[in-house]
């Protein structure tokens, strides 16, 4: 069994697509109309056949509530791995990404957390 798609709730698919491609460097893989929304997935540019990230509308009240509550508690919605967190942090800051936690060593890993402007906190991690 493999993980092929992981979803993240977003408030606005177009805004999320712009942020995740322009700021984070992901590549659009699927963009299929589904009613008033889209099946909109992204992949890492260096692994275009890898796990897809679905930018899923937070339209359902339970999704909205979940998203708001974990954001308010400072809980990241998902985590992305990076090879050099200090370099990634500096690059993202230059692109205007707002961090809630700067790179912080926690045991054998270093983490940082930023706001994706679409209702989520995202954690990056260097192992």
UniProtKB/TrEMBL annotation:
InterPro entries per record: Glyas_Bleomycin-R_OHBP_Dase (IPR029068), Glyas_Fos-R_dOase_dom (IPR004360), VOC_core (IPR037523)
A Pfam family of this chain: Glyoxalase
SUPFAM superfamilies per UniProt: Glyoxalase/Bleomycin resistance protein/Dihydroxybiphenyl dioxygenase
Domain VOC intervals: 1-127
Protein name as catalogued: VOC family protein
UniProt cross-references to CDD domains, sorted A to Z: VOC_like (cd07263)
């Amino acid at each position: 069994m493999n993980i092929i798609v992981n979803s993240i709730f977003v408030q606005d698919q177009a805004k999320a697509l712009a942020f995740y491609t322009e700021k984070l460097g992901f590549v659009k893989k699927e963009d299929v109309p589904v009613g008033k929304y889209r099946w909109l997935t992204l992949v890492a540019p260096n692994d275009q056949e890898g796990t897809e990230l679905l930018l899923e509308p937070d339209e359902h009240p339970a999704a909205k509530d979940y998203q708001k509550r974990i954001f308010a508690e400072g809980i990241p919605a998902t985590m992305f791995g990076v090879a050099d967190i200090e370099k990634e942090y500096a690059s993202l800051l230059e692109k205007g990404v707002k961090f809630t936690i700067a790179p912080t060593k926690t045991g054998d890993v270093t983490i940082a957390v930023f706001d994706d402007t679409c209702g989520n906190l995202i954690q990056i991690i260097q192992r």
